[in-house]
Amino acid sequence: MSHNNDELDRLQAEVTRQEKVIHVLMDFAERSLSIQNSDFSLLQSTVILEEQVRHRTIELESALHKNEQVTRALRESEAKFQQLVEHTMVGITLADSLLFYYVNTMFCHITGYSEKELLQMNPLDLVSPSHRAEFAEVIRKGMAGEITKADLQTEVVRKDGTTIWIQVTGGLPVSYNDKTVLINSSIDITERLRADKEILSLNIQLKEQAIHDPLTGLYNRRYLDEVLPREFKRAERNKGKLSLIMCDLDYFKRVNDDYGHQAGDEVLRTFASLLNSHTRASDICCRFGGEEFLLLMFDIDEDDVLSRIEHLRLSVQKKKIIFEGQTLRVTASFGVASFPDGVTTPEALLAQSDIALYKAKESGRNQVSLA
Length: 371
What we know:
The protein contains 11 helices and 13 strands. The chain has 371 residues and is of the alpha+beta class. It folds into 3 domains: 2-87; 91-190, Beta-Lactamase (2-Layer Sandwich), CATH 3.30.450.20; 212-370, Alpha-Beta Plaits, CATH 3.30.70.270.
């Protein structure tokens, strides 16, 4: 803007100078004519010069007019830009490592401070203590030109003491009123982060629901289909041991027929609880479907597996299940298969445990059978 004003002053001075030249020449011509009474050549030269000056004056006036138009357009553009900056939904600041030199209305709204207050503050004063070192380092690198773009999330303390999260984006340093500053834009992302956290939590819940049986809380068959091949490969790779136990509640249909499905659900929940209490934290308990359950045990000798499952069988047999004032009793059969005992695939391991369970049922139920 100062450059346009200088050009305007220069053009106006040129017009003034040309007018003075015209007057001097005209005075000189008049004096010459009165003295010599006729000097046509001088008069002719004067007329020609006057015409040239007139044309030059027109050109200068036209240039002045165009300059005024350019100046007006620049002022209008600057006003529009200022209005845009002030009414944008993004906080905009010009600052170095010590002070703010410009803040827009939205940044004042984000932080809760007035423009006057912010222009007397160090940018780090707004940042939570736990984030100041990181933010100061970004400012240092930005001012030094070590980074071409900064983009970080940081926690800010508002004037009322509440904390919010903002995303700050900046670029290379620029000159502003003889100061080297960074232009930064800031967006309040507190609600977005909260929503992201809720979505993440919801996704975790949905995932948990997708792999758990809603009645017993145990893993479901979908999870078993996912984990069995993975754990089988791990045992194969590490030359480890893996046992799969298939469990089935004996004559469970009679419970549903005699006492109703709600009683059957209570029996299933009780068996699941016993299954959990007789296994290690590393073992995986699944409801395979209906009254069938699967237990996956890692890095354990087969004799130890058989001992643990026998204790579980006895606990089921002794358990009194109280439902609506009635005492229910059930038993369970178990089939055990282990890797590497001649088993080469997870599907074969599952098939072997099923065969062992069938043997237990055929042998009179309420017992543990080994494949």
